[in-house]
Amino acid sequence: MSISKNSQRPFTVIVEGNIGSGKTTFLQHFNKFDDICVLAEPIELWRNCNGHNLLGLLYEDRKKWSFTFQSYVQLTMLEQHTKLTDRPIKLMERSIYSARYCFVEKMKQDGLLSHASAAVLDKHFEWVKEYANVGVDLIVYLRTSPHVVYERMMLRNRAEEKSVSLEYLQALHQIHEDWLYHKTIFSVAAPVLVLNANLDKSVIHEEYMKCEPQILNRTLTVHT
Ligand SMILES: Nc1ncnc2c1ncn2[C@@H]1O[C@H](COP(=O)(O)OP(=O)(O)O)[C@@H](O)[C@H]1O
Ligand SMILES: Nc1nc2c(ncn2[C@H]2C[C@H](O)[C@@H](COP(=O)(O)O)O2)c(=O)[nH]1
């Protein structure tokens, strides 16, 4: 595998959104297309890193485990970005960009990372962005309300997420909004297509279908 920035890469789409916004469901909608290599978030790697459930440790003690967890997220996301495929399109759940701009940013706001730890994560992120093949061609933002995703997350009932609060989701929502909707913080790596992901499952696939042309035809026209 070559991670060099100069190596070829497929038309790369990242789907971003709050916890419980429907990213996995969105990927399932696109699984039927042979041209698309669908890469779900490597959450099972985070739940079992040589036998350590880093996701569980994180939510048990954020202060102690934020740096460890984020270090591994950055590695696993780099693997996803540089994973080779013979398919012309790659669709990824989240990215190194949301890891840094949303989650690390939230950790910094909450004082969960020492300045030294934050500096190391930033150096790693900046090197990867500069020298690795992590370009993105389209961002799909599943825009939701915090109350909606909180209810979905509770219904999904993931063991590690029992301590995740509505306040945390509200803060993550605002960071996503500032990054991808208002575009007032951090750079945006590609054009952003905003979907109303509050819509119920019974009609959400019609909303997902709106971006099939941009993804399948690899076009960048985003009608705001
Ligand atoms: N549009 C929707 N309406 C209602 N429930 C949804 C919708 N999209 C996803 N869900 C449910 O909400 C939970 C989170 O969805 P998921 O796709 O796993 O989101 P994410 O990957 O963003 O965390 C799952 O239980 C899923 O079945
Ligand atoms: N601290 C971080 N947590 C992250 C990151 N990426 C995902 N996650 C967490 C959030 C959820 O509990 C879980 C899976 O996310 P979903 O949105 O798919 O439910 O993993 C990260 O970079 N840092």
TrEMBL record:
Residue numbers annotated as active site: 93 (proton acceptor)
Listed Gene3D superfamilies: P-loop containing nucleotide triphosphate hydrolases (3.40.50.300)
Keywords: ATP-binding, Nucleotide-binding
Gene Ontology cellular-component terms listed: mitochondrion
Alphabetized SUPFAM superfamilies for the sequence: P-loop containing nucleoside triphosphate hydrolases
Occurrences of domain Deoxynucleoside kinase (ranges): 14-200
Binding site for ATP: 17-25, 152-156
GO molecular function: ATP binding; deoxynucleoside kinase activity
InterPro entries in UniProt: DCK/DGK, Deoxyribonucleoside_kinase, DNK_dom, P-loop_NTPase
Family recorded in the similarity comment: Belongs to the DCK/DGK family.
Name of the protein: Deoxynucleoside kinase domain-containing protein
Organism in which the protein naturally occurs: Dendroctonus ponderosae (Mountain pine beetle)
